[in-house]
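Condensation domain-containing protein (Dactylosporangium sucinum), 419 aa
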Amino acid sequence: MRVPVLFDGEGSGSGPLSWGQLENWSAIVKQGTWLPLGGVKPLPAGTTIEEITGELRYLMSRYQPMRTKLSFEPDGTPRQQVYREGETFLDVVDAGDEDPEKVAESVCDRWRDEELDFAAEWPVRMAVVRKDGTLTHMAVLVSHFVTDAAGALTMMAEVASRVTAPVAGLQPLAQAEWQRSPAGQRHNAAAQRYWEGILRSVEPRRFPAPASVVTPRYWHGEFTSPSLARTVPDLAAASGLDSSTVLLALYAGSLTRVTGVDPVVIRPMVSNRFRPGLAGVVCTLAQAGLLSIDAAGADLDELLDRMRRVTMSAYKYAYFHHADMAALVDRVASERGEPVELGCYFNDRRGPVRDVPCPPGESTFRWVGSQEAPSFEPLFVHVDNVPGTLQLTVYLDAAHLSPSDGEAVLRGMEALATG
């Protein structure tokens, strides 16, 4: 059964994508997925369909990215259309004799596998599962195109308390308008000059040639480190840096020790929410910046000091027009005769509370899985808080870095931190 849900919100119009949206759209196209976020949650006893449709109506009405569809120029360039009002649907699924939680999970699994038509569909799918006439679980997936992690935290807090104050900050259409202004174009040009300086100064090959062919090619692992959870806050306090920058310095130091490649070139994910009017906006703003750091032979204090000096520019210029920057990268590759490998990423996904108390414990590493497809970047490390520890998640392409070296990079970060 499908329950229609009408919505009506503030703001509408059409225009080009914002820089954050363009970055996210490029990932959607490259990975061949609508990047669904979300999953299953149990519902309190007595929850009604009217309560859930009310939540869906609130989401669609309050957040412009929820009521955005795309159109495409003949060359494939996307444009956004924000609708003031419209209709969506809540699916109601009867579990029958099956476990309702598993039914909800199967709904999410099916939706993840299905394509989403961004020109015809809203970028959110929601369902409730009913068992013997009682609602038991909700299944909800929202495209990453709608929001990044920081925006999602704002959205969840506002949904929980049903905030009615006007939405604050620049919405994507307004962001795109500033980005096309003379001030926005000057910033974009400055970001390109900064990037070009790095692209022309480093050796193109950023990873050592693999010693052998590894199959499957793409690997996903997890390293949990209570030692890092306890040590990084102390290093941050002593150095005056935030813990994310400390971890980035440890990452750089470990990379050069494992790979022998220096300087180290990293693309840190930057929230961009320190910019005026963007702190609490529910949208996608995060972009992958670029930094280069001389890390070979540096001790920990030197690494922290060098990272302090390079991150300011890296964060400042992690705000740019994705297609313009891609064209610059291609032009420099053509002029140099080969591309500069830029597939080394770092993403601190921890929320506002980043440094939490952690008891002593053993560090552990495990490979979660390996596959031939879909592909991963050469090296991508994520940071997450999990109960009682700090977790580093690694995704790698064994054609660039072996699984054993990928594990060594994470363990090397802990070794550097603990001396």
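The two ends are 60 Å apart (CA to CA). The chain has a mean pLDDT of 96. ok done for today
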